[in-house]
Amino acid sequence: MKTVIFDLDGTLADTSADLLNAANSCFLALGHKTFLNLTDHAHIALRGGRALLKAGFDLEEISYTEEDITAEYPLFLNTYEKTLSVQTSLYPGVRASLKMLKEAGFNLGICTNKPAYLAEKLMSNMNFRAEFSSLVGSDSIPFKKPQPEHYFESVRRCGGNIEKSLLVGDTITDFDTARAANVPIVLVDFGPGHHTIEHLNPDAFLSDYNDLFDICNKLIS
Fold this sequence. Notes:
The protein is α/β, with parallel strands linked by helices. It has nine helices and eight strands.
């Protein structure tokens, strides 16, 4: 059965504001005077909480170690879990596009480097979890993107097969994952990290979710 696997953050939904706010709560508690903002730092949210914490320390121009980041990470996760769907929203056309794919018999799954419990909660809060036959997070198995095993597990849990699957993502991590898995890659070019993928050569760029159905039918024979 044909299978389409999606990244989550920056691909299905714009989660950057809630992620930045969770990181800023850590900096506020630390007494920082400068904070991350959507204009300059939204793209960093695509790399996860630890990257945001490092960016905040860099912005404050103070030295830090990996141990400092590790110490703040639980507070970040705790805050984010409580507020992860305050400003987050699906991109335009996502619901209708995925409904069309499902009605045509496609399997749908999620492969994200977000911890699985956070991804599950976010998708449930947005009333969108039931659309997906699988959701594999960063802690679901001992591998995560760009290691292809993470993608393979997402397809397997969908009941699909690798030869008739593709990945929809928005970062070089997704690109590298698909290339390692030897499957087509579709990159959305409207998210906060769009400028980081312009030099890549995916099988297709996606500028409008209304075009996804035709792209998938073309790339999966």
